[in-house]
């Protein structure tokens, strides 16, 4: 059982608004996935659909190998998609024991899970005395009680101070290193880069990029070049290890860089080959920049 979740052409409309738009991706066991997007891009709606709390409009999804119902499959999923909700006057242990009772899990799991989230020392403190970070960690412990195959978190570090953020990210990475698959929604590129191995970037419900986090950062930019002899220019650039895909666009040659190189270096290299350029622009339009640009526009 290596595929945890398969999503095909999922769409959710609220009236005229398309919150999730023809979204497809797969979650494989053992990875840490981020759904990254600015506010309102459809992250929570996507999580809501796969967790059976929001009805889809079109498309489909299935958990694991698809052989059991979503209701059955969700018994192997741990999720925190709302604010942690526990009884304020009960201690951490008492709250988790209650969850054990509801989920039909042995009470012995409680201390094991409290240790994972670094709350064992505070196990007998009342929930109302906990900081926001501790409440979030208790929620993670609660979601882990039934040893789920996958842990789903919606904006796990929202509202926390830098220390709390650091602690939660460390705990998530630690849980992942023990073999639990993770899916988290975040509007923070930095968070996804630090915690995740894979990412789905959403914009207005549509996927902009699906793949590894390393792949997202791989772009070194591209050059737009013009010369009075375009054929000679293309020939001079071909075969050089720094230059990748090339394409002619109108009067220009577009060349993608395979490794970092600044424009002056490109100019010098071509000059040495007898090519004089009438136009040279280097641009780096990585997904990272596109994402930051997007986030800026929508906030
Ligand atoms: N129940 C609902 N009724 C109408 N519109 C909704 C409903 N739930 C979500 N939306 C809309 O769907 C879009 C996607 O919302 P969603 O909460 O999934 O985004 P998000 O990426 O999780 O953002 P955030 O982090 O702000 O929650 C938004 O425009 C939102 O206003």
Automatic annotation (TrEMBL):
A molecular function (GO) term: ATP binding
PROSITE patterns for the chain: ABC_TRANSPORTER_1 (PS00211), ABC_TRANSPORTER_2 (PS50893)
Entry-linked Pfam families: ABC_tran
Domain ABC transporter per the UniProt entry, residue ranges: 5-229
Domain of life the protein comes from: Bacteria
Keyword flag Flavoprotein: no
Keyword list, A-Z: ATP-binding, Nucleotide-binding, Transport
Family, as annotated: Belongs to the ABC transporter superfamily.
Name of this protein: ABC transporter ATP-binding protein
Record organism: Cochleicola gelatinilyticus
Upper lineage: Bacteria, Pseudomonadati, Bacteroidota, Flavobacteriia, Flavobacteriales
